[in-house]
Predict the 3D structure of the following.
Amino acid sequence: MFVIIGIVVVTVAVVAGFTMAGGNLAALIQISEFITIGGAAIGSLLIASPLSLIKKITGAVSKSFGNHGTSKEDYIQMLKAFSDLFLIAQREGLLAIEKHIEAPDKSDILIKAKAFIHDSYRKSFFCDTMKVMLAGSVPPHELESLMDAEIETYEKENKPVAEGLNRVGDSLPGLGIVAAVLGIIVTMSSVNEGAEAVGHHVAAALVGTFLGVLLAYGFVNPLAANIAHSFEEKVQDLQVIKAYILAYAKGNPPFVAAEIARRSIFLDQRPTFQELEGALRGKK
């Protein structure tokens, strides 16, 4: 939502400033400049990125328009679901929760954590780790290494997404100069058409530079930063899940494991001790 608001604010600010200075909006509508810069930017992305990365970039850009991150309530629901699950394991043994791990979408406990259950990666990270615990006795340090390896792989796999988009943004000012130079070439070839025609061509050429800089610093690079931040939040979500599982594997009761996991949540989404305690005890 904020991505859309930001795009609107940037656009309105630029257009308003230009018109207030007496500019004619029609002068900014240069289709040839859009084609030159946009086509070259897409082409450079195709040259620099394999198909798998292009798909990830496309998916990340589309998701960024509706991405809200993990809220405090989402964390509370997730930690509550984990605690309810491990309370059963504490009373009846780990095998008692096998059906919840094998089919989390059908679990009457895990489905209460809506954000968790709808996030396929977080869900598989938790369930796959729990399947290892169910398969046999795994020392906590081995379990920690297993989860660290998956988190590190996730980071390496997704870091190039924001970097690839950022490279496109960095190239846009240069591509804007290319479009402007092409415009100057057109201008120089039409000097015999009179001052009005030359002025029109020069204005069109300058629009190329303007578009390159605006698209880079007003839209593409900020969008790349947004995507990078979203991936950092996802990594932190995995760290919270890891903290809970590891705390329980070391012999802590579910309530203590939830408190340990709570402290690994970023401050702006972290529930207070009282909020988490109330949720775990079923208080509203």
Notes: The chain is about 75% helix and 0% strand. The longest helix spans residues 195-249. The mean pLDDT is 90.
